[in-house]
Design goal:
heterotrimer; A mainly alpha (273); B mainly alpha (311); C alpha/beta (439); A: 273 residues; mainly alpha; MetI-like fold; 72% helix; 0% strand; globular; C: 439 residues; alpha/beta; D-Maltodextrin-Binding Protein, domain 2; 2 domains; 10-stranded mixed sheet; two-stranded antiparallel ribbon; 14 strands
C-alpha cells in the first residue's frame, strides 16, 4: 500500500515537473494561434479565443521556409556525420591506441573548451573568406565537424569496453580500424546516439554563425529565416512563435527517434561483458 | 619487430587523431591565437596602434570588467549545482521502470531542443512587468508586481548581485539546461553494468545506500565530466542571457538593466560588437579564457581522484 | 564624333523615358558634360530591412532591375545590429559588399574612421550628381544627418534612404474624454498627463520603454542643450538643461506617477489596446500599432510633433542611410550611386514613403500628385515631414556607441530612483569624459 502511494506521489511529482518544463512550449503553441491583439492582452489567455491556424500559413509564406528547413537539415546532418566520424577516430586513438603524448593531446583538447565562440567569430569569418568557403555548405558544416565534447564522451565509452574483448580481437588478427568499426562503435551506440542528438540540436538552433557566413537565401537555415519576424521597430510574436514551433518539430521527432537507442542501451547493458 | 609495430601504431594513432585535430586546430585554436594577437592592439574596425599589455592593464582596473566576473561567478553558482542536482534526480527517476517514461523524457527535454531565441522570448513574456504570468501569480498571493527583467535591485539587498533580473535569467537557464543534464546522466546510468547493481541488491543494499555506495561512485566519470562542461558552459554562457538581458530595446545592446546582467561573455560581446573596441574585448576574452582554464584545472585536480571506473 | 555624342544622348534619354513618369524633377546632369552610359554590372547590397518593409524593398529593387542595365543583388542581414556586425567582419576580411544600409551617423562615423567608405559627395559633385538647385530639393536636415566634417569641410559621406523621427502618438478618444487638447509644449504635455490620470481611470497616461532618444535628447535639444561638445570629445549634458531634461522624466515616473515603464515593445501593445493615452516613439510605428489593435476596438491613431521647449521643438532622426564601400571597383561604386539616386528619386521616394511610413526625402515629393492625394486624405502623413525642420541628428561620432550605454544607465538609474537626477548626471558626465579621453 505504501508502495502504491509512493508511486502515485512519484508520478505526480514527475508530472508536475513535466508541466513546468513543457509549459513554455505549450505557451509557444498557444501564442502561435493568436491574433496580434490577443497575443498581448492581460490577463493572458491560455487557450486562444480564435485558433488562427492561418498564422502558420502566413509564417510559412513570409519567406522560403521550405528551403530553410532543407538547409537546416543539411547543416545538421552534415555536422552529425562529420562529427561522429572525427570523434570516433580521435576518441578511439586516445582511449585504446598507444600514441605518444596521448594525455598531453587530450589535455590540450580540453583546454580549447574555454574559448568563447563570440570572439572566434571574426577570425573564422576571415578564414572562410580566405579558404573560399564563404557562402557554401562547407562553411556551415566543417568548422563544427569536430567537438572536444564529443571526443570526451566517446573516449569515456570506449574506455569502458572490456579489455578482454580487444585482446580477443587482436588475437584474431583484427586491426585497430576494423575493431573500431565492428566492435567499439556498435557497442557504444547509446553514446553515439547522444552525441548525434546533441550535435544535431546545436546545429539546428545555431543562429549567429550561419548568419555571418551566408549571404544568399538559398543557403540559410531556419533560425536565420526566423529573424524576418523581428525588426528594430517591432516583433511579430505570433508569427515568430508559429515559425519557432515549426522549427522545433523536427528536433522533437529526432529526439523521439533516438530515445529508442537509449532504451536499447539500457537493455543491452546487462548482456555486456 | 615490436618497435616497428609500436611505431606503426603511433602513426596510425596520429592519423586517427588528425581529422579532429585539424578541425579543432583551425577553427578553435587558430582563432584563439588571433584573438590574443588582437588584444595587443588598439583595434576599432581597423587595426590601430600596438599597445602591448595596455589593454590588460586597463582591464584589471575596469570596474565594469571586474563586476562582470563577479556576476559570472554568481551565475555559475546559481545554475550549475542546481542543474546537476535536479538533473541527476530526474535521471534516476527516469531510469526506473516507469510507465510513460518516454513521455516524461520528452517533456523534460523539450526546453533544450527549442531555440534559445524562442525560449528567451517566451520567458520574457512570462516575466513581462505589464502582462506577464509571473506578476499574475504574484498578484494572486498579494505580492506587488515586479519589474523582473528590468529590475536592477538585488534579490538580497539593493546593490548586491544578483539583481532580480539576473535571478530570473538564472532560473530560466536552469530550466533550459536541465534536460541536457538529465540526458547525459541517464546515459551515464545506462553504462553501469546491471550485474553490479543486481549483485549489490542481492547483498542487501537498497535505495539510498545502493545509490551512495554503488551508483554514485560508478556515475562519477559522468558527474565529473558534466561538472566540467557545465561550469565551462556557464562561465561562457551568452545566448540566453543576451536575448533576455540585452534589454530588448531598439537601441540597446548588452547588459541591462544598469549592467546587472552583464556577465563576462556579455561584457566581451558588448565591447566587441556594440562599442567596437575589438582589441579591448579580445583582451577580456583572453582573460576570461584563462580564468575558465584555471577553474577547470582546479575542478580536475579536486575531483578527478574521486572518479571510479567500472571496468 | 557627333554620331557618337548623339548615341550617348539617345541612350540617356531612353533611360529617362523608361522610368515611370510623372512630371517631376528627375536628376539631370550637373557638371558640364553628359554622363557615361550605365555600367553593365551586378552590385551587392546588404540591408537590415525585415518583414513587410523587406518585401517592399524587394519590389523596388525588382522594378529597378527590370528597367536598368545595372542589376542589384540584395542580401538581408538581420537587424541593424546584426548588419553592423556583418559589415565590421567583412571589413576585417576585406570582403565588403558594394553598398549597404547603415543605421545612422554613429555607425557611418565608424565606417568612415576605418577608411571603408567612399564619400557620396564625390558622386554628388560629379556628372552623375546634382547641381545646387536639385540638391536643394532634398530636406537639409537629412543631408546634414549624412554629412561628416572631412578636412574641416562638411561632406556628404552617406546618402539618406529610410528616414523616420521621434513623434508623439495619442489616442484622440481618451483625450476627448479627458477634455485635453494635444499638447504643444513639454509643460503642456506634463499637464495633459496629469489631467488624463485624474479624469480617465483605468488608463495609463503614458507608457514607454526608457530610452535616451525619446525623452532625454529631444528635451535637452529643445532647450538648446547638447549631448557632446562640438568636437564630440567631451560631455556637454551636465548642465541645467540636462538636469531639466532628466528631471522631467523622473517627475513623470516617480513624482506624478503618470508614466509607466514598460519592457521592449510593450508600450505599443498597451497603446494599441487603448490602455494608454500617449506614446512617444518613431514615426514608423503606426502600422505596427494598428496591427496590434484588437478587432473590436479600433481607433484612429493620432500623430503630432514632439512637444516644444523654450528653443522650439526638436526631434531625433532614425531609420537608415546608404553607404558605398571604398573597396568596390569604381564602376560598381558608380553603379551603386546610380541605384541610390534612383531609389531617392521623387517617384521612388513617394512610393517608398507611402508603403513604408518612412518620410519622403524631397520637398518636391510633397507637391507631387500621388503624395498630395494621399496626404489630403490623411494629414498624419505630414506630421513627420513637418517635423523635419526641427530635426536634430544623433552625434556623428564613432565614439557615440560607447557613450550611449552610459546615458542609458543614467536615465535608468534616475527613473528607478537609484540616484537623484543630479547625481546621475554628474556620474554619467565623468564616465563619458573618462571613456572619450581614454581613446
Amino acid at each position: 500500500m505504501r508502495r502504491r502511494v509512493g508511486r502515485l506521489v512519484l508520478y505526480a511529482a514527475m508530472l508536475g515537473a513535466g508541466v513546468v518544463m513543457a509549459f513554455p512550449f505549450f505557451w509557444m503553441l498557444s501564442t502561435s494561434l493568436k491574433s496580434q491583439a490577443e497575443a498581448t492582452t492581460f490577463p493572458p489567455h491560455i487557450v486562444p479565443d480564435v485558433w488562427l491556424v492561418s498564422n502558420y500559413a502566413l509564417a510559412w509564406a513570409a519567406a522560403p521556409f521550405g528551403r530553410y528547413f532543407l538547409n537546416s537539415a543539411i547543416m545538421a546532418l552534415g555536422q552529425v556525420a562529420l562529427g561522429l566520424l572525427t570523434a570516433s577516430l580521435a576518441a578511439y586513438a586516445l582511449a585504446r591506441m598507444r600514441v605518444p603524448g596521448r594525455n598531453l593531446i587530450f589535455g590540450a583538447l580540453l583546454a580549447t573548451l574555454v574559448i568563447p565562440p563570440e570572439v572566434t567569430l571574426i577570425p573564422n569569418y576571415i578564414s572562410m573568406q580566405r579558404l573560399g568557403w564563404y557562402n557554401t555548405y562547407i562553411a556551415l558544416i566543417v568548422p563544427f565537424g569536430a567537438s572536444v565534447f564529443n571526443v570526451f564522451l566517446l573516449r569515456q565509452a570506449f574506455l569502458q569496453l572490456p579489455f578482454e574483448l580487444y585482446e580477443a580481437a587482436v588475437l584474431e588478427g583484427c586491426g585497430h580500424l576494423r575493431f573500431l568499426w565492428r566492435f567499439a562503435v556498435p557497442l557504444s551506440r547509446p553514446t553515439l546516439a547522444i552525441i548525434a542528438l546533441l550535435t544535431a540540436i546545436r546545429a539546428w538552433n545555431d543562429f549567429q554563425w550561419p548568419l555571418i557566413v551566408t549571404d544568399s537565401m538559398s543557403l540559410r537555415p531556419i533560425q536565420v529565416g526566423l529573424t524576418i519576424f523581428r525588426s528594430d521597430v517591432s516583433t511579430n510574436f505570433q508569427l515568430l512563435m508559429a515559425g519557432s514551433v515549426l522549427a522545433v518539430a523536427p528536433v522533437l521527432v529526432l529526439f523521439l527517434f533516438t530515445q529508442r537507442q537509449f532504451i536499447q542501451g539500457i537493455a543491452r547493458s546487462g548482456i555486456r561483458g | 619487430m615490436r618497435r616497428a609495430g609500436r611505431r606503426r601504431e603511433a602513426v596510425e594513432g596520429y592519423l586517427f587523431l588528425a581529422p579532429a585535430l585539424l578541425i579543432i586546430g583551425a577553427f578553435h585554436v587558430w582563432p584563439a591565437i588571433y584573438v590574443l594577437y588582437m588584444s595587443l592592439f588598439r583595434w576599432d574596425i581597423l587595426q590601430g596602434a600596438f599597445l602591448g599589455l595596455r589593454n590588460y592593464e586597463r582591464l584589471i582596473e575596469d570596474p565594469g570588467f571586474l563586476r562582470s566576473l563577479l556576476l559570472t561567478a554568481v551565475y555559475v553558482v546559481g545554475t550549475v549545482p542546481v542543474e546537476m542536482a535536479i538533473g541527476l534526480a530526474l535521471a534516476l527517476l527516469l531510469h526506473q521502470r516507469l510507465r510513460l517514461r518516454g513521455l516524461f523524457r520528452l517533456l523534460y527535454f523539450i526546453p533544450y531542443v527549442t531555440s534559445q531565441v524562442a525560449v528567451a522570448l517566451v520567458w520574457s513574456w512570462v516575466f513581462n512587468p505589464t502582462y506577464g504570468v509571473a506578476n499574475g501569480l504574484l498578484g494572486a498571493v498579494g505580492v506587488p508586481a515586479q519589474r523582473w527583467l528590468l529590475e536592477p535591485n538585488g534579490l538580497f539587498s539593493p546593490d548586491a548581485p544578483p539583481s532580480l533580473a539576473l535571478a530570473a535569467i538564472t532560473l530560466v537557464s536552469v530550466w533550459y539546461y536541465l534536460g541536457f543534464h538529465t540526458v547525459v546522466f541517464l546515459s551515464g546510468l545506462t553504462a553501469i553494468p546491471n550485474e553490479l547493481l543486481e549483485a549489490a541488491r542481492i547483498d542487501g543494499a537498497a535505495g539510498f545506500r545502493l545509490f551512495r555506495h554503488i551508483t554514485f561512485p560508478l556515475l562519477s566519470p559522468t558527474t565529473f565530466f558534466l561538472l566540467l562542461v557545465a561550469t565551462i558552459g556557464a562561465m561562457t554562457s551568452f545566448n540566453l542571457i543576451y536575448v533576455m538581458g540585452g534589454g530588448g530595446q531598439a537601441f540597446g545592446c548588452a547588459g541591462n538593466p544598469l549592467g546587472t546582467t552583464q556577465v563576462a561573455a556579455l561584457f566581451v560581446f558588448d565591447r566587441f560588437w556594440c562599442q567596437t573596441q575589438l582589441g579591448y574585448a579580445s583582451a577580456a576574452a583572453f582573460v576570461l579564457g584563462l580564468i575558465v582554464l584555471a577553474v577547470s584545472a582546479l575542478n580536475g585536480r579536486l575531483f578527478s581522484r574521486r572518479v571510479v571506473y567500472a571496468a | 564624333m557627333r554620331r557618337y555624342t548623339l548615341a550617348i544622348v539617345a541612350l540617356f534619354v531612353l533611360g529617362a523615358c523608361s522610368s515611370v513618369g510623372s512630371p517631376s524633377p528627375t536628376a539631370q546632369p550637373t557638371v558640364a558634360g553628359t554622363p557615361a552610359p550605365e555600367p553593365d554590372v551586378t552590385i551587392t547590397f546588404w540591408d537590415g530591412q525585415s518583414g513587410v518593409l523587406g518585401d517592399r524593398l524587394n519590389d523596388l529593387i525588382t522594378k529597378f532591375n527590370s528597367t536598368h542595365k545595372i542589376q542589384v543583388q540584395r542580401s538581408f542581414q538581420g537587424t541593424y545590429d546584426q548588419l553592423y556586425q556583418k559589415v565590421v567582419s567583412a571589413i576585417q576580411a576585406g570582403s565588403v559588399p558594394d553598398m549597404a544600409q547603415v543605421s545612422g551617423p554613429p555607425q557611418t562615423a565608424q565606417y568612415w574612421k576605418a577608411n571603408a567608405l567612399v564619400p557620396v559627395q564625390q558622386f554628388v559633385d560629379s556628372v552623375d550628381g546634382f547641381n545646387q538647385t536639385q540638391l536643394a530639393d532634398f530636406v537639409p536636415a537629412l543631408l546634414d544627418d549624412n554629412s561628416l566634417p572631412v578636412n574641416g569641410k562638411k561632406t556628404l559621406v552617406s546618402w539618406p534612404f529610410s528616414k523616420s523621427e521621434a513623434i508623439m502618438y495619442y489616442n484622440p478618444d481618451i483625450l476627448a474624454q479627458a477634455g485635453v487638447a494635444v499638447p504643444k509644449t513639454w509643460d503642456e504635455f506634463k499637464q495633459a498627463l496629469l489631467t488624463v490620470k485624474a479624469k480617465v481611470p483605468g488608463v495609463t497616461p503614458l507608457a514607454y520603454t526608457p530610452d535616451v532618444y525619446y525623452f532625454f535628447l529631444p528635451y535637452l535639444w529643445a532647450q538648446g542643450g547638447e549631448a557632446l561638445s562640438p568636437d564630440n570629445m567631451k560631455a556637454a549634458f551636465n548642465t541645467p538643461e540636462g538636469l531639466a531634461a532628466l528631471q522631467y522624466q523622473v517627475d513623470l515616473v516617480l513624482g506624478d506617477k503618470t508614466a509607466q515603464v514598460t519592457q521592449g515593445f510593450d508600450w505599443e501593445n498597451t497603446f494599441a489596446a487603448a490602455k494608454s493615452a500617449f506614446a512617444i516613439n518613431t514615426s514608423v510605428s503606426r502600422p505596427f500599432i494598428e496591427g496590434a489593435m484588437p478587432k473590436d476596438h479600433i481607433f484612429k491613431v493620432g500623430m503630432a510633433p514632439l512637444p516644444a521647449g523654450p528653443k522650439g521643438a526638436k526631434t531625433d532622426l532614425f531609420g537608415n542611410n546608404l553607404v558605398i564601400f571604398a573597396k568596390a571597383p569604381p564602376d560598381h561604386q558608380r553603379a551603386a550611386w546610380l541605384f541610390m539616386k534612383w531609389l531617392t528619386d521623387t517617384d521612388q521616394t513617394i512610393a517608398w514613403s507611402l508603403q513604408s511610413g518612412y518620410m519622403p526625402l524631397r520637398k518636391s515629393a510633397l507637391a507631387a500628385p500621388d503624395f498630395k492625394s494621399a496626404s489630403d486624405k490623411d494629414d498624419r502623413l505630414l506630421v513627420a515631414i513637418n517635423g523635419l525642420k526641427d530635426a536634430h541628428g544623433i552625434p556623428g561620432s564613432p565614439d557615440w556607441q560607447k557613450v550611449q550605454p552610459i546615458l542609458g544607465d543614467m536615465v535608468t538609474s534616475a527613473l528607478l530612483g537609484k540616484a537623484t537626477a543630479k547625481d546621475a548626471l554628474a556620474a554619467a558626465e565623468k564616465k563619458v569624459n573618462d571613456t572619450l579621453a581614454g581613446f
